[in-house]
Here is the input.
Amino acid sequence: MEETPVEKHYMPRIGERAPDFEAITTHGMKKLSDFKGKWVILFSHPADFTPVCTTEFVAFSEIYDELVKRNVQLIGLSIDSVHSHIAWTLWIKEKMGTEIKFPIIADLDMKVANLFGMIHPGQSATAAVRAVFVIDPERMMRAVIYYPLNAGRNMQEILRLVDALQTADEHKVALPANWKPGDKVIVPPPRTVAEAKKRLSEGYECIDWFLCKKKL
Here is the structure.
């Protein structure tokens, strides 16, 4: 049986400049370029007034202040109208006691969703998947995570990822699996034989010449 051809969509890749956009949001017209100098987390959800998305918006709100401390602007998006977004945020405030402080893009024409590859036809042709884009202050794409429609995101992992990226930038290091703030970091591997020989006597915690850790 011949397979149906898969339509190709552009998806911003890590290390590329995030495409700018102008969009209607619950905080008025916004451009991505308005937030130069800040980190940005742009995330999409399938639809307003849906169970998993509602739990996620409450969860994003719970880490909102921690993101602000890290110079991060949070921006939501779904293919719903701004009136739907407003009604939903008011409902969340009334029913769940949570105020949504960040803007939500009303992307009825799917312009931003298509620009960022948020529409995956295998999941839905009219709803965005649960995408997370971490964009740095120079508007470079630093991390991209996709989740299916039926699985909510882990907010602590999103915070951990921001901490990891900011720590790596500030200290020019790498972060091991399951790293969290306060853990040891990985020293960049040596680039020459001479550096490799020297590495083992530099006071780091080394398993071997290519894998050494240190405390910050």
User: Anything to note?
Assistant: Confidence is low (pLDDT under 50) at residues 1-8. The chain has five helices and ten strands. Residues 172-216 form a domain with the Antioxidant, Horf6; Chain A, domain 2 fold (CATH 3.30.1020.10). The beta strands are 22-25, 28-31, 39-44, 72-78, 104-106, 130-135, 141-147, 185-186, 205-208, 211-214.
